[in-house]
Design a protein that fits this description.
This protein is an alpha+beta fold. The protein is about 30% helix and about 35% strand.
């Protein structure tokens, strides 16, 4: 039986079992992880972060975490501390593992980490065209705050607006 998918929706893959979820490890991103992080980043985005962006984020001002399952990189996130807030800079689930709840798991981890550090708000920007991510963030409880015009590169001499979102922790 085929599944009918409406525009803007994505077919959901089978959810991992509880046993699989219990084997997942969230660990600080290390310099030696960057080759695998870059491989995921380049397959996930048309305008990926550079290796330099990731290297610069491996310092005490940032939280850079990788989500692993049996040595396979499922995803990662990077966030920057602010005064009573945390700013999510990049959250990525490897394309082969999208739609399985790993992004939600990383948002849970980031929310807990942010609260532990005294943050009252979690902030992010997302491409206006990234309907899948917008849906994930809205379902998680983020609210749209504003639009940043021409925030992201979108091709040769083109720019794309960012949706600014926040979540009260």
């Amino acid at each position: 039986m085929s599944q009918t998918i409406k525009p803007g929706e994505v077919a959901q893959r089978a959810q991992p079992t509880e046993e699989t979820r219990n084997r997942v490890l969230l660990a600080p991103m290390q310099q030696e992880d960057l080759d695998r992080v870059m491989a995921v980043e380049q397959t996930a985005y048309s305008h990926p972060w550079t290796l330099g962006n990731f290297r610069d984020s491996l310092n005490p001002l940032f939280h850079a975490q990788c989500l692993w399952l049996d040595g396979e990189l499922l995803g990662y996130f990077l966030a920057m501390r602010g005064v009573e807030e945390m700013h999510l800079l990049n959250i990525t689930v490897a394309p082969a593992h999208q739609g399985q709840g790993w992004g939600h798991m990383m948002l849970d981890a980031l929310s807990l980490l942010s609260r532990h550090e005294g943050a009252q708000w979690l902030w992010l920007e997302v491409r206006q065209s990234n309907q899948r991510a917008l849906k994930v963030y809205e379902c998680y409880g983020f609210k749209q705050v504003s639009i940043r015009k021409d925030y992201y590169p979108a091709g040769r001499l083109q720019r794309e607006h960012a949706v600014v979102m926040s979540l009260k922790l």
